[in-house]
Design a protein that fits this description.
Largest sheet: 3 strands, mixed
Strand content: 15-25%
Number of strands: 5
Helix content: 25-40%
Radius of gyration: 16 Å
Strand order of the largest sheet: 1-3-2
Number of domains: 2
Shape: globular
Number of helices: 5
């Protein structure tokens, strides 16, 4: 039997850069399972040096798939009209053809049309991809 539980809690977040009149962009970056925000955010230093504010809350989702138990129908409206980019490392051992098919089915179900960016690399954050996303 499935039940819902609602709760409020506080969590940590980490920030690089400032939000002020010179800020070009604000990025919310979500790390993968088992990572910590304070280490993950360091991979975005080059963006912060270019007037991009980076915020990394403790919690999910770079170079991976959405959790299978996530209720997308409930919050799907939050994704409507937003630019969504799926970044895939061509040598990522965690992203198989089956996983890509699974994400495509989910995109269709949610009526999303994300931009797909691939790079030569594995399960990592590619600096060229970051700079392309931020400044193109």
């Amino acid at each position: 039997m499935e039940k819902e539980l609602e709760f409020n809690y506080k969590t940590k977040y980490y920030k690089l850069g400032e939000i002020n009149s010179e800020t070009k962009q604000v990025w919310w970056v979500l790390h993968g399972y088992g990572q910590l925000g304070k280490f993950f955010i360091q991979k975005f230093k080059s963006l912060a040096e270019n007037k991009v504010c980076i915020i990394a809350p403790e919690g999910i989702l770079w170079a991976g798939l959405f959790p299978t138990d996530m209720n997308f129908e409930k919050g799907n409206y939050l994704l409507k009209g937003k630019e969504i980019v799926q970044v895939i490392g061509r040598q990522d051992p965690f992203i198989t053809k089956e996983k890509i098919d699974e994400m495509e089915k989910l995109n269709q179900k949610l009526k999303l049309n994300p931009k797909i960016m691939e790079f030569d690399g594995g399960h990592e954050i590619d600096l060229h991809v970051l700079l392309t996303l931020a400044f193109n």
